[in-house]
Structure formats: structure tokens, C-alpha cells
Amino acid sequence: MTVSALALRANATFIGSTVGRKVVMAVTGAILIGFVFVHMIGNMQLYLGPEALNHYAVFLRTFLHGAGIWIFRAVMLTAVVLHVWAATTLTLDSWAARPQGYRLWEPKESTYASRTLRWGGVLLALFIVYHLLHFTVGSAHPDFREGDVYHNVVAGFQVWYASAIYIAAMIALGLHLDHGLWSLFQTLGLQHPRYKRYIRLFAHGFALLIVLGNISFPIAVLTGVVK
Amino acid sequence: MNLDPKVPSGPLAEKWSKTKFDYKLVNPSNKRKYSVIMVGSGLAGAGGAASLAELGYYVKCFCYQDSPRRAHSIAAQGGINAAKNYHNDGDSVWRLFYDTVKGGDFRAREANVYRLAEVSNSIIDQCAALGVPFAREYGGLLDNRSFGGAQVSRTFYARGQTGQQLLLGAYQALERQIGRGQVQMFTRHEMQELIVVDGRARGIVVRDMVTGAVETHLADAVCLATGGYGNVYFLSTYAKGCNGTAIWRAYKKGAGFANPCFTQIHPTCIPVTGEHQSKLTLMSESLRNDGRIWVPKKQGDTRAPGDVPEDERDYYLERKYPSYGNLAPRDISSRAAKQVCDEGRGVGATGLGVYLDFAESIGRLGEDTIREKYGNLFEMYERITAEDPYTVPMRIFPATHYTMGGLWVDYNLQSSIPGLFVLGEANFSDHGANRLGASALMQGLADGYFVIPYTMGDYLARTKQAPLAADHPDVRAAEAAVAGRTQRLLGIKGKRTVTSFHRALGRIMWEHCGMARNAADLKAGLAKIPPLREEFWRNVTVPGSGDEINQSLEMAGRVADFLELGELIIRDALERDESCGCHFREEHQTPDGEALRDDQRFTHVAVWEYQGDAATPVRHQEALTYENIQLATRSYK
Amino acid sequence: MNLTLHVWRQQNARTPGRFVTYEAHDISPDMSFLEMLDVVNERLIEGGEDPIAFDHDCREGICGTCGVVVNGRPHGPRERTTACQLHMRSFADGDSITIEPWRAKAFPVLKDLIVDRGALDRIIAAGGFISAPIGSAPDANAIPVRKVLAELSMDAAACIGCGACVAACPNASAMLFTAAKVSHLGLLPQGQPERFDRVRAMVAQMDAEAFGSCTNHEECEAACPKGITVETIGRMNADYVMASLTVGRRAARLGDSGGG
Q1: Which domain holds residue B579?
Q2: ipTM
Q3: For residue B533, what is the domain's CATH number?
Q4: Which residues on A lie below 8 Å from C204 (Cβ)?
Q5: Helix, strand, or coil (residue B540)
Q6: Residues C229, C161: one domain?
């Protein structure tokens, strides 16, 4: 027979397609979620005292003779860049897909988390910049001591508005994760009607865990549990 | 008028294979030089366009809808018949053939019906291959149910959406050819005129319903697959847009119109609620497998159905037709419903309704089984009536559903105009005077997938045609006629809306030419239509212009044709002085109210020939000969 | 019932539109939503005005022709119901009803509430089919189909192509529509040979039509009159990934002359 219509059209690139970019979102999102989780667990050493936390920091910097942290940073940077790139282009495409909106619009199935996903992402990007300047570079820190992570954390969070920014950002992160984590499964097609509610519950639980774990640090400092 | 049915000689079972061998073939490399026009994109249209394109012909396909997927075949619910005998219950091609001829009250052409039964099996194979998700047994094999007056389980189905799934199969095959460039699709285009040059159909004039542009399309042959004309009754189970314009234009260009009075009234529709009603919704006949039909024995009994004790109910179908019971054929069930309502035993606010009760089968099979079988239909009923059929019996009433009549075609599906082929419900078809359930889908796909690809090839191979100039006088005349008609409709600027005329026509048709007909009523109806038509052309109002989307204008054109077609229906009903199938003449019935055929005088197809607007059309006959089966009185008792 | 309608009126694709308010008196709760519009239109025509153009055909919820956004919900407030099956008893006397067309770049307004949904057909033409030439099919029972797969396939095949999913999606994405067809055919054994080519071709066409992308709001599922679920989208995504990972396998094989 003649050339199939299918073969003629299936030449668009994976990365250029909406589904492909969604998969990029999902995979990089999974990497970032993994990081967020490990980051939180690592920081839990705040509660073990200065020794433990500072040793942990040293370990991270010297891992693989110091190359580890750079490999890690490269992976993170790539993931963030790809995540933001995919999000931005998909968002612009979606905005262009509806030049004229509705006068009246009644959402039904979408959630606050799903509707704020994009702006939550923008907030998180800004927060990450602040976070890096605050604890990694130190330029946004009132009393930054190179190498003394425990001190930097305690001193940093003793500034009430810094803590407030962290708490607010973690709530944004929670909402972002709540929908993002669920979306990840959906986008990759890791789904089954029987397990749908468990995946949902897992996303809710995971997001809550991250929020509670992370905001416990500034609260612990502000309330004097950690000095 | 040449009414040679061109039925091949030889034994019935070999006619089709012999003919296929006798047909001339078009050389594969020449096929692309031929173009074919297909009007309509339902089962017959989409199926035909796809299969012709697959063979290599260049096809232009037209539909008035915004997508070929929306053709009204999509609304068929129950199923499609095939003589697969997968259930080992005694089915065969011969039995399907016999049932269809008998169901049609012996008014169909033997050879056509046999071919239909013969290809029915290939249809199921083809549809399964195209991805139609038919209902399956747990073993993975196809499930069947018994349906509409058949005593074997031969109906294949996809929930209550068989028509949808079959159409989507054909639509996808069509879209595939569109993607390949082998079919050019024209959506939102309505055929307005047939172009006949030197006695052959050579093209059509269409109106682009978005821009209003009048376009001409020329080809080597034209196929009409535009469905039935039941909307002449205004209220029907047809889609709002279904119309008779294409076949009516062809009729006025010389194509014979066969058996126009054979209009099927379906017994199970949701009753009318008021003047605003725009259409009637069918409740699949499959419901009759498990539902029991009854009315109170007492006249004017206004008790709630649950308060009527068992012994005061009249399960009239079970009583009158013990062997078929609630599954009696459509014409018989409809008439029985009308009868009990005429006796004043109808139910509901209007008294035009009977109960379809599932209490017994819910008790026997459980609500879950019923929900699994008919869930979507029950939901649809609840949506429309706000009543829950799991607890309260459904109310149903007959409504216009299908037209067995249509343009006359020979064995090759060619009308009396050479080069004009008519497929599916648009032709006078294989159903005689009454169509059995699950047979329409079968016929549409048979014509489209398995008949037209052969017969079209033969026509093209035998016909030498010179290319037709776009400015040929006959082409120009057809274009001018379309433009003139549009201007005329827009120019009347009267007082009355198109819909009000349509509704008035529908009432005349229903009252005078409905489920039971008699000479006096028919004559009275015949007298009422010309004044209405005259008023239409004097007093209709069509707002807007012709060069934009103008739904009033679209409707006006269709109603104008219905106003003529309705008259022909009544005329045909009057001339057919016998009762057969759907056509019940009160003068001709047995003492217990059953139809009485007059085989002596009416074993023929009535074919009407147009003689001009002012003249009475001429009635021709194509005699029906039955070489293989014995004419018998239909009995479902 | 008496109602106030705010209806989008637009002469054609080139001119801008606006909302016009109409009073609809004496509406029966037994009317369908479209019959209510019929009544309003009859009165407009009698008053010499241009009636409201809206798409409709079968009026029994299966052809997918009708579809308007009613008070911010595609097909109106009732779940799993097309506009033609929505009845006025879903509204209360005195209600204000805002009626808008589907809004998407891929669905340009043709007039008033009528939009052009040809993009959906083009997605099907790109790959939403099984290539089974007429007459070539084996016996229908030669290939058994697991009942559960046949049912899942049918769930997806129930799509009526109305476009409500696009209208409902905050991103105007056509993924539910596309995924429904990918699922319908991809779940059946008959659809396997073209499964991966199909999904790539259909997604490419979907993107070319300028639909947005999915962010898993699930508004499409909520608006779908046929209850098609977002699982179809997950299935499509997974197929798309698999298709993209395995594409070119044939070309990569050495010594393949491409057949005779």
C-alpha cells in the first residue's frame, strides 16, 4: 500500500512536544523532590547539636574529594533549569491557547494547589535565590560564619522576618509538592484507578511532612528550643 | 422511467458472487483518474467514501455537520445484526434473509436482502478490525443479544451506543483517507442541487454554510447517503438537521422516489411533554428484552403505576402476541400502543403513553444486572423526565424513527439517473414495509463497505465520459437555481417563522398519515398541505442574509422541501390500498385488528416520477417476484 | 420560569463580539436548555431580530455537536450531561444565565456560540484510526479481546468529540480528547501494530493545532459529558514516552534494505 499517514507526521521531536516537556517536568520534578526530602532529613541534624550538623556540612563539602558537591550542584542546576524551562514554555503555550477567557468561570475539580502551581513555582525560584544568598553565600545573612552552619542557622532564623519568609516559602513548597507529586505520577502514566487515592494521599502526606519538617527549624529557633 | 432492477440471474445464494465476477474492473493505475462525490458521512457515506478512497478513487465527501463524526447514525443504540451464528442457536444467512423479508412484510427485493444477509458477517469482521469495542464475553469472544423481533441472538452491540461505535469506526477509516489526501472533506456544506448532464449525474451544487458561498463540484459519479426524511413529521427521533433536500433535489431531477409512505414509527420513545418539544428521544428497543409493557385495564385510570394491582394491568403485547410478547416487531408494537391509548387507557399527563416496567426483571435479575445492561439508557431517561426508572416504570410512546422509503435503486444501488447512486437509509432500501431492529446499521455499512466499491467500479469502467466544463449550461443553470432559491426565501420577509410551518406540517403528517391511515384522513391531509405550502412561500420570515451562517435560512430550505415531500408521502399512502408493515390502512384489517396485505394488487414497489411542480407525479411499479420464499401472512402470535 | 440570559453575540470570525442580555419569559422546566434557546429565538425572529446561532443536532447527547459554557461550566451545571440533555428544571425562576462559546485559540468562533472544532478532526486524521482496509479483516472472533480491556476501551471510545474538555481546561488543552482515542485503540489487540506511531502522530498534530498542555487540574474529566477519565491521559503519556524511546529502532538496524 501507500505510505502510512502515521509515518509522515510522526517526526516532531520529543522535547518539542507538550507531552515530552511534561515528562521533563515530571522527571526533573522527581529529582528535586528527592533533593528536598534528603535536604530536610540532613537538616534534622540541627536537633543533634552543632557538632553533628557541622560535621555533616563538612562531609558534604569533602565528599568524593570535594567533587561530590559540584556534581550534585550540576545535577541540581540542570534539573532546575530544565524544570523552569519546561514550565515557562508550557505556560506560555497554554496562555496562548486561550487568548480570550470566560466572563464566568466555575472551577470544579481543580484545587487551590493545582491553580497556584505556576505562581508557587515562581515564588519558590525567588526563594531559592534568597536561600542561597542567605545560607550558602552568606551575603543576605546578618552574621555569616564560613563553616559554622549551626551558628548560621540559629543566627539566621533569629531574625523574625527571615523566619517568616522561610515559613511562607515552605507553605508554597507544600502546595507545589502536593499537586506536583501527584502530577508526576499522572504525567508518567504511573497510575491505576485502584491506587489513585493512595497516590493522592501519599502526595498530601509527603507535602505535609516536608512543610512540617522544614518549618520546624525556624520555629525551633524562634521558640528557643534550638539555641 | 427505466425501473429494471438488474437483478442477476442464477440461484439466490450465488447472485452476488456471480455479479461481482461479472462486474468490469477499473485498472488500478486508472482509478486515481476518477472522482466520486459522496454526500453524507454516516455509516453508508463515511464507509463508502473510505472504501472508495482505499481503492484509489479520488473522493469528495460532504456533510452539513461540523464534522463527519456527527452524522445521525451515531445515535443508533441497540445493535447490528449478522448471521454469524456464534451462539449456535440456528441462525444462518438464509434465516437472516428470511426474517428480514418477512419483517418487511414481503415488500422488499429478494436478491438485495439476500446480499445484505450475506455480507452481514463481513461487516462484523471489518468493524472489529477497525477497533469497534463490541461487547465481549469473559472468554474474549463477541457477545450477542436478541433484538427487535428476532428469535435468535444475532445482534452485536457496544453498550447502548452501537451506532456511535460503528460510525466512529467508519469515521476513523474516513479520516485516515482524508489524512492521506485521498478524500477531500467538506464539512458544513449542504447539497442544494444535483447536476445532470446528458442524462448522467455529474456533480452537485452546495452551499458553504459558513460563508454562504455557492460552490459547484463535478465528478464522474455522485453518491447520496443523506439518510431518511422522517423529519417531515417535525417531531421524530432524527437529529434536528436531518433533511430530505438532497434526495428531493435528485427526485426533481428525474430520480424515482420509491415507497415514500413507508415510514417507521418506533414504539419506545419518551413521550411528548409540551408544545416546546423539538425532538423525541428513543429508548433503545433492547429495553423490551427485560421490560414489560402494560397499561391499566380500566379507562382513565389515574392511579400511580405502583398502586395498580397486578390483576388490573393489561400486558397487552404479551396477551395478544404470546410467542413474541414484548418483542413483537416495531410496527405491531407501535400500533398496539396507539390502540390502547385510543381506548383511553394511555398513561401520563397527556394520556399518550404506556408503561415499560422493569420491576419484574429487577426482582428476577437484581438491580445490578439491569444497571449493567441498560445503565446509560436509564440515566438518559432520568435526565429527560426526572423520573427514576429503577423505581417507577418508564413511560413510552411511539415516534417517527426511520424511513424505509427513499430513492429507488437497482441491485447496483444506482438510481434511475445513471451515475447517481444512493446508499443507506436514503435509498428505498432492503427493509420493505417495515425495518427490523438492528438492521439499519447493517444496511448502511453493507452499502458503504461492501456494495458500492464493486458497483461503482463497474459503472466507471463501463462509462466513457468527457470532462465537463464548469460553464456548461446545465451547470450554470443548477447554480442559478440555488442562488435564486436562497434569494427568494430571504426576500419573502413575512410574519411566520420557519419552525411554525414545520410544526404545522408535522401535525398534518402525524394526524393524517401516522400509525394508522385511512382514505378519508389521507385525502383530508392531502388537501391541507398545498395551502400551507402556499402560505410558506408568501409569509415565511427568514432573518439575516445569505452570505453568513444563517440557521433560519438552512431550515427554511429544508422545510420548503418537506412541504413538497409530505404531499408525496400522503399521495403514496393513499394509493397503496392495502395494509403492509408500517403502512396500516384501517380499511384493510382482520377482525382482530391485524394488517391485511393485498398481494394480488400490491406486491410491487411504488416508484414516483416528478412531472413538474404543478403536475401530479406519475406512479410507476417495479413488480416484486419471490422465487425463493413463499409469501405468508406475518404472524407474531 | 422567567430568566435573564447574557449571551455572547458575534457576527462572524472577523468581528469582535459582546454580551447581549435577553429576558426569557414563560420557560417550562420540562424544556431542554436548547429548547429554551429555541423559544428565545422564535421570539427574536418574530421581532425581526437575528436569532442566537448555536450548534446542535441530535439533541440526545450523542452527536457532540452542541456545547456552550453555561454559568462558567461547559454544558451547564449537571454532571455528565450535554447541553441538549440539560433541562431547565436545573435552574430556578429568576436565575441569570451567562452563555458563552467554547474558548480556545484552536476553536475560533464562527458566529455567536458556534465554534470551529475542525482541529479535533485533524487530530484523528493524523493517526486516530486502525489501518484495516475494507475487506481485509479476519473473522471477528479470530482475535479474542479480554473483557476488561474491551470495557476500558469502550469507556474511552464513548467520547463524543464535543470539545468540552478543551473548553473546561484552564490551559485549553485537548489532551483528554486525544488520549481518549489513543486509549480506545491502544487498549485493543487490533490497535497494537500502530500503537506507538499513532500516539506520536496524534500528539504532534494536537500540538500543531495550538492547544495548551495538561497541568492535571482534571477540569476536563469533570466537564466530560461521557465521564472519560484522566487515566486516559496517563496512558497516552506512558505510550508517548515508550514510543519516543523506541522510535527509530527499525532504521537503526544494520543491513535493513527497507523491503522490496
Answers
A1: 480-603
A2: 0.96
A3: 1.20.58.100
A4: 9-12, 17
A5: strand
A6: yes
